[in-house]
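Hi U.,

Before I forget, here's the chain from the pilot set. I'm dumping it here mostly so it's searchable later in email.
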Amino acid sequence: MDQAFVRQIAGYSLTTAEILYRLPDHRELLQSYVWQDYDLAPRFPKLKDFLGFWDANLEGPLYRVRVAHRALVSPAEFSFLDGELQIH
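Structure:
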């Protein structure tokens, strides 16, 4: 069975993080890295593990992390009680 599908059934959704970090040899310059994986909002355990690995093993110090996830940009619940929805 596809592991991405299994994660989605468990509540995971695709998470994208834009990571800005300082270059090790030129601290005044920023570099961008994009990370994607299936993660669970709002705690983001996989992203936190990755950022922990980064902090412990890579020389470029983190500057900023921006996260995009379905739970952050979609309504919590959408349902019809009674009626009809027409889209032109």
